[in-house]
């Protein structure tokens, strides 16, 4: 696979200047020690102070120019959670379905770890108003979507929770449609129930058709217990799709890791309001 070159913009925030300097230095050394990629350049901005920010007045930015295989950059985008990613390369890439399955499995594992620590990502507006999604497509329709629309056919297994089985089934189907997926097959089975809360755990097995970016977004949001790319045998990604995948995954990871900071800011704002009203 042809290597890709990107720029990661990794943001640092703190209420202690020396602690931030140390953390940014450790991040730089960690990047330099990464295997499987070439760190072409690293620039560390001077730490700036915002006197109007009582909670986290100090901020800094690391700009890292990195060259390496797509699968390694996907891993780094999640682990370093850059605030922004710029794609430098102008070439596309081709990935065998088996290798893409492994990459998506790695995304599921890493995002699952983050969500266990910081909470879930998937959130939707009211789904009641959405129409019931179609389930099942002909072979001709699937081939047309793969060839003409550059979509993937993949199996996606995820755990979901709820009290009413019919409502859970309706909601997950609509959520998948909302994400941009077409559902070819759908099966759901109850796996357990919390006696205290009445919430049930369901295993949902689907066969989905979507674009490559949607497949990565869905994997990042749901951290499926299993995923397998069925068709096509070779998946090609253009530069726009590469940029989108890396930016989406970095954005998901960044959103999760800064949640504690957002919670602190909200708590401080609420406390201030209570004290001054």
UniProtKB/TrEMBL annotation:
Name of the protein described by the UniProt record: Uncharacterized protein
Give the originating organism: Thermococcus kodakarensis (strain ATCC BAA-918 / JCM 12380 / KOD1) (Pyrococcus kodakaraensis (strain KOD1))
Q: What is the lineage of its organism?
A: Archaea, Methanobacteriati, Methanobacteriota, Thermococci, Thermococcales
């Amino acid at each position: 696979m042809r290597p890709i070159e990107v720029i990661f913009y990794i943001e640092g925030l703190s209420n202690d200047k020396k602690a931030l300097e140390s953390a940014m230095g450790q991040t730089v050394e960690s990047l330099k020690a990464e295997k499987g990629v070439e760190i072409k350049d690293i620039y560390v901005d001077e730490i700036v102070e915002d006197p109007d920010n009582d909670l986290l007045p100090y901020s800094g930015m690391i700009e890292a120019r990195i060259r390496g295989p797509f699968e390694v950059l996907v891993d780094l985008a999640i682990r370093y959670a850059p605030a922004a990613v710029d794609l430098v390369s102008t070439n596309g890439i081709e990935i065998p379905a088996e290798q893409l399955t492994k990459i998506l499995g790695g995304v599921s594992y890493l995002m699952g770890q983050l969500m266990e620590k910081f909470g879930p990502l998937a959130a939707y507006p009211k789904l009641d108003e959405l129409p019931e999604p179609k389930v099942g497509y002909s072979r001709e329709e699937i081939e047309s979507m793969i060839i003409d629309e550059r979509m993937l056919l993949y199996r996606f297994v995820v755990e979901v929770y709820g009290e009413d089985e019919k409502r859970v089934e309706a909601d997950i189907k609509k959520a998948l449609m909302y994400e941009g997926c077409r559902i070819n097959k759908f099966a759901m089975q109850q796996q357990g129930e919390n006696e205290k809360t009445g919430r049930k755990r369901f295993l949902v097995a689907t066969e989905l058709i979507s674009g490559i970016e949607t497949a990565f977004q869905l994997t990042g949001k749901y951290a499926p217990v299993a995923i397998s790319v069925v068709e096509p045998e070779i998946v090609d990604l253009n530069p726009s799709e590469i940029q989108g995948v890396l930016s989406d995954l970095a954005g998901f990871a960044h959103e999760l890791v800064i949640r504690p900071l957002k919670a602190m800011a909200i708590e401080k704002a609420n406390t201030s309001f209570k004290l001054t009203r």
